[in-house]
Amino acid sequence: MARRVIIRFRVYQFFLRAYRLYKRAGIRQTIVRFVAKILHVEVGIQLAKNKAYKILSEKYDFRVAYGPFKGMQLNKNIWWSRNDLITQTLGIYEEHILEKIKFFSKYGATAFIDIGAADGYFAVGMAYSKLYEKVYAFEIEEDGRNRIIENALRNNCEKKIQVFGKANLNSIKKITAIEKKATFLIDIEGSEYDFLDTNMLEALANHFVICELHPWLVNDGEMLQEKLLESASSFFDVDLIKRESYNPNNFSDFDNLSDEERLIAVGEGRERNMYWMVLSPRNFS
User: Fold this and answer.
1) Main-chain phi, psi angles of 276, to 5 degrees
2) 221 belongs to a structural domain
3) Which of 205, 230, 228, 210 is nearest to 281 (CA)?
């Protein structure tokens, strides 16, 4: 009986990893990576990623080396994506988003709410760096929640973080009733178009919101995105941003890698040029 449970769990984990990879990299890269894994070979982009990962893990031992999270210990037991450890170690993972989050912390936001927190890089980072006084992390997967709790304990900031499962209007209203001004980061793989309905937008109207947009993951995604942007403009000032620059030459750690390898190292594995919706309260100046 126990053996059957273990086998079922491993099969579940296999398909879960495949699904996550498909969402991040597309069907072609998913097939290539799984075939390469079966054959025990490294190919193309992943080969370059592995070289960069080896350099950083040996030098910094899974700690953030630069930026506001410098010194924070990263979880070796990765749940979402090992490749993210490269830019996380360098302190530049979604750097354009980090800059916005830092900016909002200087303009009255004292709580950080991470919806779709994955391994908790941002959630734990905000608590560890003391950029925010309180952190709320929502993650629907139990593995993800466990990683967040583990890393908060590892970085001695567990008292500043509360971890929850799925976010909904009631759970968000409980937070907004307590927190006068907060920053919300939303990354829920296409579910944002249902989550950010008129009632939710109204509940968030006095706060800052950053949402990663995934129109290609849902049916009629472009139409839903236009509708979301229009609805959000009734409550917020709306801006769309994307990652503008990749600067691998800022890091001497990669001086012995080729031009192509350095560029690949700081890439984040997205299948297309993505946008984030940034919402600021109407009274914000």
Assistant:
1) -120, 135
2) yes
3) 205
- In the chain, how many domains are there? 2
In a domain, 48, yes or no: no
**Domain of 17?**
2-41
Could you give the CA distance from residue 72 to residue 95 in angstroms, rounded to a whole number? 16
Task: Give the list of residues 6+ apart from residue 74 with CB closer than 8 angstroms, or none.
Answer: 62, 63, 64, 85, 88, 89, 121, 151
Q: Compute, in degrees rounded to 10, the torsion defined by CA atoms 42, 47, 51, 54.
A: -50
For residues 113 and 230, membership in a common domain is answered with yes
pLDDT per residue over 220-260, tens digit each?
Answer: 999 999 999 999 999 999 999 999 888 899 999 999 999 99
CA distance 264 to 95: 16
Strands (E) located in the chain: 111-115, 134-138, 161-164, 182-186, 208-212, 236-241, 276-281
**Rounded mean pLDDT of the chain?**
89
| Strand, coil or helix: 106 | coil
Q: Which amino acid is at 67?
A: G
- Is residue 9's pLDDT more than 50? no
pLDDT, tens digit, for every residue of 167-222? Answer: 999 999 999 999 999 999 999 999 999 999 999 999 999 999 999 999 999 999 99
- Give me 79's structure tokens: 């749940």
Alpha helices in 40-134 (DSSP H): 44-60, 84-90, 95-105, 121-129
Q: What is the mean predicted confidence (pLDDT) over 135-162? A: 96
Contact 161, 186 (CB under 8 A): no
**pLDDT tens digit sequence for 264-278:** 999 988 878 899 999
